[in-house]
């Protein structure tokens, strides 16, 4: 180990109070929880052994006389070093496990957010296309069905707005404010908000147009083609039914996630 007095930075005439003061100062400096240097555990063990030997009058006399410490002291020092190394390994292992768990949690949350966004947009576009292609299948047959449809539409519109806002807040950034005093920060999100709105609106209009066009080219409209009534119905139902479809699919998706968490 070397000279115990040198380990504590003392001379051989040091008093007990000086030994205690030096030990407290060095222990704070080299404690493994404070000092991240790989050699800190070994240094801390040497400081402990030097203190335990010099603070005890009998052991100090023996050391001053022989210049060595007992085999039992060597064993204690070895155990102290091993314990310090074990504590160090446990600390790094716990830290690594925490980092991995946090990363996995972020990945799970990101996967769920991405899945929900895909379900919302795909359901919106596909349901719009299907309704616009064959509106006759979705015509209300009674007053009660019409009232229920209007209630579901109101709930669906609110849900659709909330879902789109959630997705936009997660994946898009608003246009940066132009300032002559502050530098423009680089956006932390992937897409511009206006681009996302354009994607949703254009996708919806293309779904309506494709559905109406395919409906006109098939027999879907042939039995009910009276002026522009059928096309008007297609446009109306393409406005009413897709929010309801999104509401139903998102609800099923949430239920599925709850079962996965159980």
How would you concisely characterize the structure shown here?
The chain is 74% helix and 2% strand. It is mainly α and 262 residues long.
Topology:
Layout (H helix, E strand, L loop, with lengths): L3 H5 L7 H15 L9 H15 L2 H10 L4 H63 L9 H29 E2 L17 E2 H25 L11 H33 L1
Parallel strand pairs: 1-2
Helix pairs in contact: 2-3, 3-5, 5-6, 5-7, 5-8, 6-8
Can you walk me through this structure?
The chain is mostly helical and 262 residues long. It has two domains: 4-95, Helix Hairpins, CATH 1.10.287; 108-261, no CATH class. Helices cover 74% and strands 2% of the residues. It contains eight helices and two strands; from the N terminus they run H-H-H-H-H-H-E-E-H-H. It has helices spanning 4-8, 16-30, 40-54, 57-66, 71-133, 143-171, 193-217, 229-261; strands spanning 172-173, 191-192. The chain has a two-stranded parallel ribbon with strand order 1-2. Helix 3 runs antiparallel to helix 5, helix 5 (71-133) packs across helix 6 (143-171) and helix 5 packs antiparallel against helix 8. The longest helix has 63 residues, at 71-133. The protein is rod-shaped and about 110 Å long. The two termini are 57 Å apart. Mean pLDDT is 82; it is low at 224-229.
